[in-house]
Amino acid sequence: MDIIVRDNYEKMSRYAAEIIAKCIKSKPDCVLGLATGGTPIGTYKELIRMHKQGLDFSQVKTFNLDEYLGAGIDLGKPYDLDQSYARFMYEELFKHINIKKENTHVPDGLSKEPEKFCQWYEDEIRKAGGVDIQLLGIGGDGHWAFNEPGSSLSSRTRIEPLTKQTLDDNYESFYKKAEIKREQMPHFAITMGIETILEARHVLMIANGKKKAKVIAKALEGPITSQITASAIQLYNGKATVVLDQDAASELKNIEHYRHVEKLKLDYKLGSVSLH
Ligand code: GLP
């Protein structure tokens, strides 16, 4: 796992966006796994900026991690006060880039048969050839997507009840803006499972701010546990990159080692150190 620390949110976002852009350039029809929340907004802004300079999304496919059950929009149609992740993705990324609507997938929170939908979503990811890069944030309770504490580390896409902490956090950061009352916000979500996430070929986790410092330290340096589902990154056998700002990295015990490894890898790439 590469743990990269950048001075601030902007630099963290740029670093993450560059990884994604590199993937798109080397494989124009790549499959991106996308995340919501405040954290990836800067990464999406960077990708939009790169698109204006020519980054082409015309063949890119996307699969989002999760959606509130009972929320969703028909992309492109008028909507009022809709606080769905579908709307979030449309506003923060999709409407600004040349991605085809049919190539974007956000779990359907309005599905009449959500359980069947979960299986369909898994099948679609498989049919698309799997996810090349999965972007992830981390919830205050250590969740990935909506895999709340206690979720099996081998879970698949399913319906998950949200914890009180997630409801409180996400009410403040997401639902409150739409003047929806706390008790009106959805209490369940459709979420990719941990095993679904870990099937991606590259896992890219980002986090910023002091608020995330303790949970990041638990996820990266604590025991692997279903109580902090992001700790499953330690089990992951593919390429994993964690990009943090200084504040989110501030509780890591081995921070000096991660900096050393980053420098060593760069020196190796530049040819100033060798393996012998
Ligand atoms: C939600 C999403 C997660 C996200 C988390 C953190 O719960 N389901 O995928 O990582 O929010 O959000 P933020 O980036 O706003 O802290």
How much β-strand is present in the residues? 15-25%
Strand order within the widest beta sheet: 1-10-9-6-2-3-5
**CATH topology term:** Rossmann fold
Q: How many domains comprise the coordinates?
A: 1
Tell me the major beta sheet: 7 strands, parallel
The ligands bound in this entry are:
2-amino-2-deoxy-6-O-phosphono-alpha-D-glucopyranose
The CATH architecture can be named as: 3-Layer(aba) Sandwich
Radius of gyration: 18 Å
Describe the structure.
- By secondary structure, the protein is of the alpha/beta class.
- The chain has a single domain (2-270), classed as Rossmann fold (3-Layer(aba) Sandwich).
- It has eight helices and ten strands.
- It has helices at 9-26, 41-52, 85-92, 114-127, 164-175, 194-198, 213-221, 255-270, and strands at 2-6, 31-34, 61-64, 66-68, 104-105, 133-136, 158-161, 188-191, 202-207, 239-245.
- Helix 1 packs across helix 2 (41-52).
- The two termini are 22 Å apart.
- 2-amino-2-deoxy-6-O-phosphono-alpha-D-glucopyranose binds at residues 35-39, 65-66, 137-139, 145-146, 166, 170, 173.
Question: How is this structure best summarized?
Answer:
The protein has 276 residues and is an alpha/beta fold. The chain has a single domain (2-270), classed as 3-Layer(aba) Sandwich (Rossmann fold).
